[in-house]
Design a protein that fits this description.
about 35% helix; single chain; alpha/beta; about 200 residues
Length: about 200
């Protein structure tokens, strides 16, 4: 997978996952604001939709190709194991920051693997899959940030995602903004404070 790795001074590695049409460059400054000193592994999605990189296919807006989602989640998980060996970072201390489609693939990692992440900041996510049993996520910290008027990720998606993660024993906080799908400064500030509270 195309990616950028920057070694930091702390033992935490941030996994940065862009939104639809983004690249591995998009969230690096965000990562450095949220967690100065953390190593950074920023990844580009392997799927193209009308020329725009994504992390998995969808049939239409809000309707995921579940088979591809499962395949791409496994692919990303395997890539993280490979990257940890290549760059010699602690695979057990990885925190994801994802926006939109990137938040969805990060949530999918949590839904499929109990050891994928110790934490995740999910900006404007949706529920990646429904009707499955989640792994035990005890000790995993998750921040969901959501816009009350988000046309792409209805508020109920964030509420449902919180419920599913809490049922899996994760520690979850939801931070609401009055806006839409765009990432706003208040979310960045909350993410930064949340990270320092938990890690």
């Amino acid at each position: 997978m195309k990616h950028i790795f920057e070694k930091g001074s702390s033992d935490i590695t941030l996994l940065l996952l862009h939104g639809t049409g983004g690249t591995e460059h998009d969230l690096i400054q965000l990562g450095k604001m949220v967690a100065p000193g953390a190593s950074i592994l920023s990844v580009r999605g392997n799927v193209l939709e009308n020329g725009m990189p994504r992390f998995f296919r969808r049939f239409e807006e809000g309707v995921f190709d579940e088979e591809d989602l499962i395949f791409r989640t496994k692919e990303l998980y395997a890539f993280l194991d490979e990257a940890s060996k290549k760059y010699d970072f602690d695979r057990t201390k990885m925190v994801a920051i994802g926006y939109s489609n990137g938040a969805n693939i990060a949530a999918s990692l949590l839904f499929h693997y109990e050891d994928a992440l110790i934490g995740a900041i999910l900006h404007h996510p949706m529920v990646p899959r429904r009707g499955i049993s989640l792994p035990n996520l005890t000790g995993t910290h998750v921040l969901i940030t959501a816009g009350e008027l988000d046309p792409m990720c209805p508020a109920q998606e964030s509420i449902d995602l919180e419920t599913l993660l809490v049922e899996a024993q994760a520690e979850v906080e939801v931070f609401w903004t009055p806006g839409g799908h765009q990432l706003v400064q208040g979310e960045v500030e909350r993410a930064k404070n949340w990270f320092h509270e938990n890690f």
